[in-house]
Design goal:
- The chain has about 475 residues and is an alpha+beta fold.
- It is about 40% helix and about 15% strand.
- The chain folds into 2 domains: about 120 residues, Immunoglobulin-like (Sandwich); about 325 residues, Glycosyltransferase.
- A hairpin with a 2-residue loop joins strand 10 and strand 11.
- It is globular, with a radius of gyration of 23 Å.
Length: about 475
Amino acid sequence: MVNKIVFLFVLCAFSAYSAVNFPYPQEKNYGNGTINTTVANASANLKTKFTSFFSTHYEENQNKTMGRIKYDDTQQTVSEGIGYGMIMMVYFSDNNRSYKDEFDRLWKYYNNFLDQRGLMNWKINGFNNAIEYNAATDAEFDVAFALEMAYYQFGDQKYRDDAAALIGKIKQYEMEPDGLHKPGDGWGENIARRNPSYVSPAAFELFKRVDNSFWTTALTRNYTLLKANRNSNTGLPSDWCNNNGNPESNYFGYDASRAPWRWAWSYAWFGHSDAKDLLDKLAAWVSTKDVANIKGSIDITNGNPGSDNNSTFIGPLTNAMQVDSKYQTNVNNYWTALIAKDEDRYFQKAMQLLTGLLATGNMPNLKALAEALPSSSSVSATPSSSSNGGTPILMFPQIVLSNSAIASKNGINLAVKSNATVEVFGLKGNSMRKFSFTNGVYSVSFSDLPKGLYIVKVSFGNEKRILRIPVN
């Protein structure tokens, strides 16, 4: 018992200094012909906005087991905000500050207010009780997506397992049998009302690992809805529509505003031709508009503006123009206006940050980055003198620019910039394996160990990372 207590104390100490696998800023070129803003200091200025948002809208309960994102009524939290917050904690983590603990507390909050189907009730009073019941589908899409990315960012298999379980519930309760999304889990089947801004094609693409056939169908079905819904003149989507895509009203308002961000994200990551179709039409219209005249809600038929010139509308329309390099000047002008906004409402701030991540190249597909291993021949790594027994290890020599350690099935994938050590512990604190590595990319398997849960300490010099690895 004493040894276990000492080990857990040491584990906590290392965790406090743990780094992340893909630290902010990433500033990646997404590919597929897309562009990012080229305005100077874009990433630094966006991080400043996040720091302000975090200090104002993130709150923990008294015993620090849960965290929430404050809504406009600061006594309330909506499930959508939990999803946004979890995405932010993944992508704004850097080598000076990991937001893994905050991510975990937001996920704990989500699970503390579940409805009868195991999905979060959409509006909560502080840390106390639900005040609006049943789930909102966009929140689940974003939370499941964030869990998928957390697996690659923080290197813990539990996130991937949790994501798979949530994706299963989404399919069961928030999707029609033909793949069309529902607005929530309490809507029943064959309903006549849809929300185009809920559709998250990039998330659907990731969800294929759980059920490839269903989520492939869902992509096709929901893209069909989106293309039918967008206006033929402006390319703008409506807030709500029927099953055929016919707008419920002719306005691109606070609901619809999120849709272009989701389209641009999907095209940047996966090159979906349907997303490009949607973006090409919309970007052509947006590029003719001075950013000062982007005011919601916008009439989708003629583009006539409303009165609200804020990040909710500027940010997603900035993303829309990332589809083509011919809009570089427009993207930069819109970015300058977006980052200059000093928003005072939760939703406007959230959209400024999320669309800003995409616009600056700081929202890359971490799965693709983690799996981008070279195909050169393998050689063995050298166990250190304290190693107890051998284990299969493959090395792919290459120039590594940053360190990473990511959980894989029965082991870890490791990228080493200079030197690293990996030590595997049993839950009683006993050292099971210890290896040393030099520059390169490695796949390390622990499948020869007895079935169970192991704690893996990875040391990159002064950087320490702790992973929990199940062997089965």
